[in-house]
Amino acid sequence: MGNKLYYRFNREEHAGNIEYFTSLYLSTEGRKSSCWFSNLPTNISKSAVGKSISSIYKFYSWLARKARAGDQNAEGLYLDSGAGSLTTAKICPGIQGILDTSVLVKSPCDIQITAFPDGSWIGKVSDPMLVSITEDHLSAQFETLEGDNNIFDGRVVVKFKIPITVRTENEVPWVFLQPQYHNNMDLQVVNGVVSGENTLQQSLNIITLVTTPREEAFDIIIRKGDVLAYMWFPSPTQLEYSDQEFVRTTSRFVGYELIKRKK
Question: Are strands 192-194 and 237-241 parallel, antiparallel or unpaired?
Answer without folding.
Answer: unpaired
